Every structure is written in structure tokens, then in C-alpha cells.
Amino acid sequence: MRHRRYLTVLAAAAVVPIALSGCSGGSSGSSGDPDTLTILDYYNNEPDKTLVQEALDTCAADLGVTIDRESVPGKDLIQKVLQRSSSKTLPDVLMLDNPDVQEIAATGGLSPLSNYDVDTEGFADGIIEAATYEGELFGLAPAVNTLGLFYNVDLLEEAGIDPPETWAELKDAAAALTDGDQYGIAFSAIATYEGAWQFLPFMWTNGGDETDLDTPEVQEALQLWVDLVDDGSASNSVLNWSQADVKDQFAAGKAAMMVNGPWQIPALNETDISWDSVQVPVNEAAQTPVAPLGGEVWTVPETGDKDKQAKAAEFVECISSDDNQLALSESRYLVPTRTALAEEFVEKMPEMASFTEQVANARSRTGQLGEDWPEAATVIYNAIQLAITGKAPVDEAFSQASEG
Amino acid sequence: MTPATREPQQAANEETAPSIRAAAAMTRRGRSFTKDNVVKAMFIVPAAIYIILFFGYPVVKNLLMSVQEYTTKTFFTGEAPFVGIENYLTVVNSNLFWPSIVNTALFTIGSIAGQFVIGLALAVFFKRRFPLSGFLRAMLLLPWLLPLIVASATWRSILDKDSGILNQFLTGIGLDAVPWLTSPSVALTAVIIVNIWIGIPFNVTILYGGLQDIPDELYEAGSLDGATGWKAFWHITVPNLRPVVSVVLVLGVVYTLKVLDIILGLTNGGPANATQTLAIRSYQESFVNFEFGVGAAFSNILIVISLVFAVIYLRANRRAVDE
Q1: Distance CA B181, CA B169 (A)
Q2: Residue in B74, B268, B272 closest to A386 by CB
Q3: Cβ separation B272–A389 shorter than 8 A
Q4: What does each C-alpha distance from B248 to A219, A402, B114, B209, B251 come to in angstroms?
Q5: Are B11 and A7 inside 8 Å of each other by CB?
Q6: How far is CA B239 from the centre of its chain?
Q7: A-chain residues within 8 Å CB-CB of B94?
């Protein structure tokens, strides 16, 4: 008897997932209601979740639509998008991290904005480049971020050091600011795309290029990082620090300077550290700092429902309207993507001055290599790890890393 | 095969035994046993559906993916061109293949050895009853209860070179700080240490259960003949524990081969690829580089290695039954 009951339960349990998978299809994706837009993004943490919701609500009210929003953790977004594209349940409006746009556009899952009447004028070149695949623009970003050099004002004043502008000054300042368990500088050289992203401002500023990594310009940038660690001005824990860890080190007073982005500002303002930021230092005084462009792009997936796609395109245009750009930039410490807004923005938010300047010259990671960028990024972070650990000399690190 | 899937089959076998007898009785009366066959089949159906759905399909799909060019495009277009063994060639020819095999072997052997020795020592220790022994034994399960992602984040801060508590302790007693997670020569050791910590509860629990099954009379009889302490352990405990030991070791190997989250959380395969294992390669190819075909090839190699150990386990088990 006992066995029989056990089996009945088992049989029931075996049927449940089948039944469940049968009904899950209809609940997500482009919904049937013509006035409801489904939205998928990765702002699942506060305060971003609420701040973005405000922008979305504004646009929903403007267009007279209701929205059905889903936010997933950042690292799950691409998997979610792939799953949904295979089950043909892509949302009406999709947010993507800008280096992923071309990869997803290449699958054929996105609808080019030229199909709709969308105003794409006045945006910074970098972000248009990031969202363009084979000559077609696939999305717009209301606000972007980049990298800069944060410094601890008190520590630099105490040591009588001005914020560094060149690599030589950076090395000297970092060495002078290293004392006991306080390091001069912190950055992220972790074995993920984050490590590659942090390296780009140094590599690009020095004239290096991801299409050919085996050049003296790229090697000089790597040498700078290796020197900082070898001199003891940076901990060799940089090999395992994410950018959030770098911010924690800086906030704890264990690093006098750090390479990081403006999205850390809310967290820094909660500490009693007095900080300021400058553009990433250059190798030679005549160079212009070139940093990578970060931030998310809103796109219109191919859902098959033409009317809704048109509405979604209007929605994407609205998210990137001037008012929304300024509102989102102010609340989330980003930089508006319409270059004409820069002056007005810096007046309101003087602490964002260096980042706004940095964004004007910033490049997108996928501008040159498109969907092949992840491969180059992997080579970059592997080369950094090989060189800093001493497993390969700087001049061989990139060729060794590119062998896989 | 895991215990969870074996049970229903066994249950089904035991259940069909009486109905076979009933069927035999019916044959004597007439040839109306089709209904009985249906009933028999019904008992197998749930287990069969379960196995086909949750074991058969993924395995077949994975084999298929490994001979296809399966990328992000495939998800939208559904097209995955057949490429034969190209993915396997990519895997074997990649510079990280042999290092990741070696790392997988070192990681597995190191983890199992550490987990088993410490687990057995603790199990023997807790066999004696002493105040709070029940409470302490329950506390030992803690690493098992923590989500792995929490455990690895905590260990990451413990092992931090500059401010980690372990290095604070080491420098406090006059030793040098160790760059646990940032030096390619010690990172694998650090990851193994953490995995040992996570695996101890499993080993203690199963081995403790095995120890409980050894009758006390054996020890009493042994002590009359002068077998106490180490002698009792070698000549009474070890031989009687052998079947349990084989279960612990084989399951341990299979669980350890596929460890992913701990390594991802601690080092993400770094520094300088020092902690790349087959499981990490498979994950990174599939979910970082979106080369699902190559990732599937890596995981198939991993499955074959696991399978070898599963076969060893099944054979060892059969021998035990034969004896």
C-alpha cells in the first residue's frame, strides 16, 4: 500500500512540470493588449529600479500606453533574451548593455530604428556607433557613463600632490601616497570583461587599438599597470577585484586614487570621504584622454506585431528625449547622450564635469570589432593577468593570450 | 545515476512482483491479461517519462549541440549548421585544454583527499558521546546549508591578501601574508581548501551513518583479543566501512568534477587561468563567449569522465552484492 501511494505521488510529480511548461508560454513576451508594452531591463536593484521606473512611467503617460516591466539581474539578461527569442516571446521594448547590442542585432532579433520615424540627431558619436550594426541603428541610450580617476582630496592635500595628468605623474603620486596598508591606487584587473573595460582608457589614450593588440602603444599601457603593481603602489589583489571591490577599497581609505565610473558616486556620497575626479591620465601631455563608453541602449525587438513595434519605437524615442536624459543623468549620475545638453548639465551637476568631458571623446567597445569584441576583450584581460602575475613578459603577454 | 532515480525503479520492481503472481494465476483461468500488462506498463511510465524528459533529452541535446555551430544567432533563427567534430578539435587544440584537465584532476584529487580524511576523522570523533556532541555535529552541517554563492563571497573576503582575516592571523603569528587568490601558484590550493570545507559535511554525515551500522559487539570482541585504538580502527572499522567509503568517494568525485560556482565566485578561473577547470571552460565558452557548441563539447568530455567513475561505482557495488 505504502509503495502504491508513493508511486501515485511520483506519477503526479512527473506530470506537474509538463503541465506547467504548457502554460508558461503565454504569460510573457509581447502581450495581446494593443495598448500595453512589455519591457525587459536589468535595473533590478534600488535606487536604479525606481529611478528608471519614473522615466518609463513618464513616457507611458505621454504615449497613452500601459507598461508591463520585468527587471532581471544583469548577468542573466542575455540568457533571458536568448531564451525568449527562441520561444518567440521577446518583449516590445528591450534594454541591452551597449556592447551587447551588435551581438543581438546580428541574430536578427532587433528591428532597425530607420523603419520608424525616430529622431536620432545630436547624439554623441560613440553611443550611435555602439548601437549600429551593418549601417543600421538599433537603439538609443538616454544617458551613458565612462571611466575616470577618482582621488581622495584629503590624502592628496596632506601629501601636497596635485591630481595626476600624465602616467609619470600617476606613478609618482601613487608611490608617494602608498603608506602602510594604504595603497596609492586601485583598479580592476579581474579576469572578466570588467578588467578589459578598465584597461581601455589607458590603451586607447596611448593610441592603442583592439584590432591589433600586439603594438608598442598597447604594451606601454600594460607596462604602466604592471609597474604600478610591481612598485607596490597598487595591491596585486587588483587581479581579483571587481569595480565594486575597488570602490570599497577607496571608500575604506585603503586606496588614495581609483579608476572607476560615476555610477559609484551615490555610494561614495554615503561615506565621509571627500572625493573628486579627473579624466584618466595620458601617457604624453599632448594626448587626449579616450575612455570607453558605458551604459544601456533601449531597442525594439522583432516581435512580429508591426503596430506595437511602431509604438515601442516611439517609446524608445521618448526615453531618450531631452527632459528624460537630464532627469536620468541627474538622478543616476550619468552623462546625457545629446552633446548639446552637456553645458546645461554640468552647470547643474558640477561634480560630473570631468566625466561629461570624458564622454564627449569616448569610444564604444564594439565600434571597430562589432560582434567580435568579446573575443578581443578576452585576450585583453588574459594578457593583463599573465603580465601582472609575471607569467609572461609584457611584450609577449598579448601574443600568448591570443593563442587561447 | 543518482539515488533519486534509482528508487522509483526499485519501487516499481517490488510493486510488480505480486502482480506477476496474479498474472500467472489469471493465465490458468484464461488469456485475459492484457489489462494486467497495461497496469504493469503504467508503473513504469512515470519513471520513464521522468528519465527521458530530464536525463535523456538534455544529454541528447548536448551531444547534438557539440556537433553544431550553435551561437546566439541560433536562438533567433533556429539554424545550427552541422560542423562535425570541429568543436571538439577547437577544444583539444585550445591552449587551455591540457592545463584545465590537469587543474580538474588536481582539484578533484585534492578536494576528495582532504574532505575524506577530515570527514572520517570527525565522524570517528563524533562516534563517542560527549556533552554537546549532538549540537556540534549539527553545527558541522552549516557549510552545507549556506548557499554556495554566499560561501564563496565570504571566503573571498577571508582570503583577501591585504585585509583578509586569514592573512591578518598569519602575519599576527609572525608568518608572511600569502596571496591566496592572486598568485597563480597558490590560487588552486586556496580553491581546493574552500571546496574541502564545503565537502566535509557530506563526508561526515555519510561516514557517521556507516559507523553507526558497525555492531558494538565487534569492538567488544576485538578488545578482548587486544584490538583497541588504531588496531580496532584498521581491523574492524575500515573493513566494515568499505561499502560506505566507496559510495562517498565515487559520489564525491562526480560532485567535485562539476564544481563551478565556488571557483567562479572565488577566482573566476584566474589569476592568469590558474584555476581553469573543464567545468569553468564549459561555462565560459557557453555563457561568456556564447559559443554554445564548444561549451557543449567541453561538458561532454566532462560527462564522459564522470561516467567512467559512475561505471567504477556500479561495478564495485555489483561485486559487493555478489560477495
Answers
A1: 16
A2: B272
A3: yes
A4: 50, 41, 13, 11, 5
A5: yes
A6: 24
A7: 404
Contact criterion met (CB < 8 Å) for B271 and A192: no
The candidate with the shortest Cα–Cα distance to B96, out of B268, B272, B304, B299, is: B272
Q: How many CB atoms within 10 Å of residue A267?
A: 13
pLDDT of B6 higher than 50:
no
The total number of residues written for chain A in this structure: 404
CB contact under 8 A, B162 and A237: yes
Residue spans of the domains in chain B: they are 98-322
**Mean pLDDT, residues B31-39:** 76
Distance CA B273, CA A385 (A): 8
Q: How far apart are CA B159 and CA B168, in angstroms?
A: 10
More confident of the two residues B206 and B33: B206
Residue of B nearest to A382 (CA): B272
Q: Does A391 sit within 8 Å of B76, measured CB to CB?
A: no
Put simply, whether A191 touches B (Cβ < 8 Å) is: yes
Q: What is the pLDDT of residues B109-136, one digit of tens each?
A: 999 999 999 999 999 998 888 888 888 8
Q: Please name the residue that has the C-alpha cell 589614450.
A: A205
Question: E-strand spans in A225-336?
Answer: 255-260, 275-278, 296-299, 335-336
Domains of chain A in start order, with CATH, are 29-144+294-360 (3.40.190.10), 148-292+370-402 (3.40.190.10)
Question: Crossing angle, helix B292-322 and helix B57-65, to 10 degrees?
Answer: 140
The share of chain B scoring above pLDDT 90, in percent, equals 51
The distance of A23 to chain B (nearest Cα, Å) reads 17
Render pLDDT for B81-94 as a digit per residue (tens, 0 to 9).
Answer: 999 899 999 999 99
Residue of A237, A380, A394, A402 to mutate, testing the B interface (most B Cβ within 10 Å of its Cβ) = A237
Q: Mention the CATH class of domain B98-322.
A: mainly alpha
Chain position carrying cell 576528495: B112
CA distance B60 to A283: 54
Identify all chain B residues contacting A304, using CB atoms and an 8 Å cutoff: none
**pLDDT (mean) for A301-316:** 93
CA-nearest of A241, A236, A259, A216 to A394 is A216
Rounded Cα–Cα distance for residues B118 and A66 (Å): 59
CA of A391 to nearest chain B CA: how many angstroms apart? 7
Interhelix angle A216-230/A373-388, nearest 10 degrees: 40
Q: Tell me which chain B residue has its CA closest to the CA of residue A79.
A: B287
Q: Is the dihedral of CA B291, B293, B296, B298 positive or negative?
A: negative
Q: Is A378 on the interface with B (CB under 8 A)?
A: yes
Rounded Cα distance between B133 and B127, Å, is 9
Please indicate if any CB of chain B lies within 8 Å of the CB of A140: no
Contact of A244 with chain B, judged by CB distance below 8 Å, is answered with no
